[in-house]
Write a structure and sequence with these properties.
The complex is a heterodimer of chains A (about 140) and B (about 120). Chain A is of the alpha+beta class. Chain A has one domain: Heat Shock Protein 90 (2-Layer Sandwich). Chain A is built from three helices and five strands, in the order βααββαββ. Chain B contains four helices and five strands. Classes of the chains: A alpha+beta (about 140), B alpha/beta (about 120).
Amino acid sequence: MTDATDVTGDLAGIRDAVSVRLPAASAYLSVLRTATAGLAARLDFTIDEMEDLRIAVDEACAMLLRHAVPGTDLIAEFELTGQEMSIRVEVTTVGIAEPKRDDFAWMVLTALADDVDAVSSPDHMAIVLRKRRGAARPA
Amino acid sequence: MDLKLDHRTEDRLTIVEVEGEIDVYTAPRLRELLIDLVNKGNFHLLVNMEKVDFLDSTGLGVLVGGLKRVRAHDGSLELVCTQERILKIFRITGLTKVFGIYASVEEAKEAHGRDK
């Protein structure tokens, strides 16, 4: 008989991809924050790191929602690989939209995530953020 | 969890009790309450954040907006907050230098009394 615990495997072996599609409306952000914390727990992030991720995802989405076409969806794609969680959040826009990089939202997002990229294309805007477990924080 | 708001006035200080999550969805309700209080002549506000579970930059923007309004009337907007995860957001944005932040309502009331 095989040991059932082998199925879960070692944390370093985890590679999960999870997509969440929600209406692009602020009322749903609390749902996405909860999903983020739940997925971060799978990688054994500390409580502080989970909280950082929850806030970072919230800030990224709040920025995107300002540009989102009403009635469309917000798509969040989480990728968990060993020590790192990468999250891409994307909305549909009219034309090319760029996030403001001189406000509180960008300041908080870039302080809490290890890497942040904004990707704009015609009719879409995405923010990709990454956070590593146990990463040293820049001062 | 949604956002619960309450307020009471003690002497000249209006204490705003905030409970729950302040995000882009709920922050407009806090903004409306602060604007309403100022419009009704309450220029010394103390926002108790001890029961706030979540705060993002939208919430910060609302508090800064409230501060600007009361300052236009020589008033004050101060905070009660001891939660490290909430204080962290104020530190990241440099707002710990902008707001008076106290450990309890009593401590804030004492400081406010001294300033009068």
